[in-house]
Hints:
60% of the residues lie in helices and 11% in strands. By secondary structure, it is an alpha+beta fold. It has a four-stranded mixed sheet, covered by helices on one side. Strands 1-2 form a two-stranded antiparallel sheet.
Amino acid sequence: MKVSKLTHSLHKQKEETRKLQITGGSTYVLSLPKRWVTQNGLEKGSQLLIRQEENGTLAVLPPELAKPEKTDEALIRASPEDSSEALIRKTVSVYLLGYNIIHIRAKDKKEVSSTHRNAIKTFARNMLVGTEIVTDTSTDLTLQVLLSYPELSVPSALRRMTIITSSMHKDAITALRNIDQQLAKHVRATDYEVNRFHLYIIRQLKMAIQNPRIITEIGLKTPRDCLGYRLITKMVERTADHATNIAKKVQLLTKQLDEEFLQAIQEMNEVAISAFETSIESLFRLDYDLADSVIAKANKIVSLEKKALLSSKETDIEEASNIRLVIESVRRIAEYSMDIAEVVLNMTVESVIE
């Protein structure tokens, strides 16, 4: 009750009611709060931008906020001293800032090396969702992001991420049971798909923070959702990394593991993945109680971890360190699930208070 009253009080402090007036018989006038005019350094004759939003409201912007948005194109200068990795990092940063056209050109009108161009092209094709190579010459490599907001919303991209991540973990444990090197290799390769969606979602969220008008276009409701989705997206990406870690350890194993241990790690992983999937579902449903149930479910992992550690004692010394890292990765899935659930609790707490 106290939280609700405080929130209501804060909103009231920012609200004022003013009457619409008419002058000259045809011009409608609405006076502005003096405090707002003073805070923004305005005076008689100051230029203001009035913009109608999609929901029918009007936004009144002072001069510094009324400036045109940044250009849609960005230019990255490459030099022979740059490494391919450094240029890729610059390209990713520009992509995340929301630029739709990215030029990579050499300094002093020289050529961009084929090594640099090939590295950036390969990365863009594999990792930057919706990006096409529109120019590829010795002096200019141009990438263009063709995907628009409604075509792939943030919730849709995150759901795709979680489906892939969940599948990766199930395959990683299957590979562990069968010492299946090919399946382990497939799990590691699939991680690139998760990373692609991760970068795409960050790009969309950054753009929404810079331009709140597109929040609904990317599939969210309020600016506060951007923070919640940003935190959760990172946790999903980290969860996928642990599936990759398990797959890496499988590729180091040389013999079939003890059945008792395999049963224990299977049980542990099922609980962890169930908690993970439930935490994500609580986000999409915006269900406080469902998110709260994840905490209790994930807490079961402690006893299951002890069971897995005890059953792994029969493992050869040369395999023991890899096995313990597998157990740790499964535990981390449950921990990330609880972290996701806690974010959802924060996003939905107003639904359970009066």
